[in-house]
Specification:
310 residues; mainly beta; three-stranded antiparallel β-sheet; globular
């Protein structure tokens, strides 16, 4: 793990997506954070030690999902499948497929495996799965404020943890989509999905892959950000998100609460979902698993010594 020192910083953005507004000052106590997202190998060790079964490996209970047909009550998860050509970007069902048998061990479906990608981030992880791993490891999931502070790497107010340009001097700094999303993949063969952790430069704290690769769960309920007074005496300390009930999207007939995801993924592109930034955020229902969502953990407490905690 890597130590993130206590800091007061500017959270959110006034120039990006609406859900990131307003930009406001917050204070966060120091904490430790995993240097990388939790990998397939690390999650496999957890499963081997505990026998844990993830949500994507369990058939849904029809009693919890009114209208769900019996033939739909099978275990699976959402997998990105690129369409053959351009499609309306308002229709995500053109590139997402519910795949029976897709889960953390079979990220692209039952015929796939994690053999050879043990150092890639684990995916198809529901919030309860991430929380279970964190408890087993003696850690916690980060708050949104903790995550955003760590992602910024000590830079305050820049678009990216490395400055204002996505690819300074043409150098790739994170795993994001290359080409016109969702159909045109200009990455080298075999690089279309997740990448091994640490394939891109660390931020100034020494943390890798907080931007791109996979979205990461936080432990905050999703809600619109609230402004503060802007006065030094009133800067929130260790702020938390909304309430569980307020996180539910009733306007869309939702009934499942949502947590905040951060960091963007390998599917974020300049022409779609420019959320490969520390301030970016989206809601994710806690029961929803996909091929581009993972997590990392934090440990709150004092800085015991000057070297990384392992």
């Amino acid at each position: 793990m890597v130590r993130v020192p206590a800091a007061t910083f500017s959270m959110g953005s006034d120039t990006a997506y609406e859900e990131e507004r307003p930009r406001r000052r917050v204070a966060v106590d120091g904490f430790w954070i995993d240097r990388t997202p939790v990998t397939n190998n690390q999650f496999a060790a957890f499963v081997a030690a505990t026998g844990y079964v993830t949500l994507a490996e369990i058939a849904p209970d029809p009693g919890m999902y009114p209208g769900l047909q019996p033939e739909q009550c099978v275990a699976g998860s959402a997998v990105f499948v690129a369409p053959a050509g351009p499609v309306p970007l308002s229709q995500p069902d053109a590139w997402w497929r519910w795949v029976i048998g897709a889960n953390w061990q079979h990220p692209a479906g039952p015929r796939s495996s994690i053999e050879g990608i043990g150092d890639h981030p684990v995916v198809h992880i529901a919030h309860q799965d991430a929380a279970a791993y964190a408890r087993w490891a003696g850690k916690s999931l980060p708050t949104e404020a903790e995550w955003e502070l760590a992602a910024g790497g000590g830079l305050d107010g820049t678009a990216f943890p490395w400055g204002e340009e996505l690819a300074p001097d043409g150098k790739g700094m994170c795993n994001h989509w290359h080409g016109e999303f969702p159909w045109q993949d200009l990455k080298p063969p075999g690089a279309a999905r997740t990448s091994a952790v640490g394939s891109f430069p660390p931020n100034c704290y020494g943390i890798v892959d907080m931007i791109g690769n996979v979205w990461e769960w936080t432990d905050d309920w999703y809600g619109l950000a609230q402004p503060n007074s802007g006065r030094a005496c009133c800067v929130p300390r260790n702020p938390r998100g909304s309430s569980r009930d307020d996180s539910i999207d009733h306007d869309w007939g939702g009934a499942v609460p949502r947590k905040v995801l951060k960091g963007g993924s390998h599917l974020c592109a300049p022409n779609y979902c420019e959320r490969y930034r520390p301030s970016a955020r989206i809601p994710q229902p806690v029961d929803t698993t996909t091929s581009h969502v993972g997590f990392r953990c934090v440990l709150r407490g004092p800085a015991w010594h000057n070297q990384d905690w392992h």
